[in-house]
Amino acid sequence: MIAPVPDLWSVHARLARCYGAQTKWWPGRENPFEVIAGAILTQRTTWTNAGRAIRRLREAGVLTVDAMAALDVDELAELIRPSGFYRAKAGALKAFCDLLGRSFGGDLRRLLRLPTEALRAQLLTVRGIGDETADAILVYAAERPSFVIDAYARRLLGRLGIADPNDSYRSLQGRFMDALPREAELYADAHALIVRHGQLHCRAEPMCAGCPLRDVCASCAATSHVEGTKA
DNA sequence: AACCAGGAATGTA
DNA sequence: TACATTCATGGT
Question: What global pTM score does this model have?
Answer without folding.
Answer: 0.94
